Amino acid sequence: MSEAVREAVVGAVVETRVGAVAGTRDERAALARATLARAELLTGARSLRRPAPQTPVPHVLAPQVAAPTVPEPAVLMPEVPTPRTRAWDGAPVRRTSLVTSERPSLPVPRVLSGLLPDGLRRGSTVAALGSTSLVLALLAEACSGGAWAAVVGQPTVGLLAAAQAGVDLERLAVVPQPGIEAPTVVAALLDGVDVVLVGPEAVLTDGDRRRLVSRARERGSVLLASGTWPGADVVLTAERGCWSGVGAGDGRLRTCELRVTRTGRGGAGVRQSVELTLPLVRGLGPVAPAVLTGPVEPVEPSVPPVPLRLVG
Q: Core-most of 39, 68, 132, 138, by most CB within 10 Å?
């Protein structure tokens, strides 16, 4: 510390002691604080005095003035009519896809027109039980009208039998063993084929069946099943099959007499039956059985005699 600073501090202390002898207590305290401030100013030391507390000023919020609102111009929207659930005559409105309503139904054999007056309606599900010949007759009539058909999971359907029943093989796709991909295969065929026959070898769950029914309705295809199908629109059941054409050790099976019964939902809920003979000729009804006029004598071919000669 320099000599001048030391003298200033000593003088401040002496002044404080001199003032402390005379005066009241408050005067002595004020003198001591003034002397300390002078010493801090001369030495450059940091002040240890605490600043006087400041009285907080209350914060007054200014009143908020709401901005003037500008009314938006009203936009008039055209009123959308509520869709009617019933027609003017009180009949329920049928909600169908555009594809189903625009494309006509597929034809059926004339002998079955009493059971299927509307033919094979697009988007419907039909189950034909008890006769493969009945299924082939339905496919044959549909293909005759230009429709495409597919058979999935029905390995017992032979192409020769299908051709003899009248099915156009150029318009037929066959997937005998779809395996675990049966739902995918059937769904893909429903997108582009008019009639899809699903056989017992196509393993499907109840959820798969419901989704395939919805897909057929959406795509406008006919889902034809040769086995039990829960929720089918029409069920055709073949009963009392009787074959003819076989004699006593000769002949072959030519015709089959069946009784076909129709059940189902909606208009098909009324049970109806019809007698028919398979195979059918498209548009003409059953094929007349072949008539045997009598026993046929076997004709032996004439073989010219061969002369014998001794060998050895």
A: 138
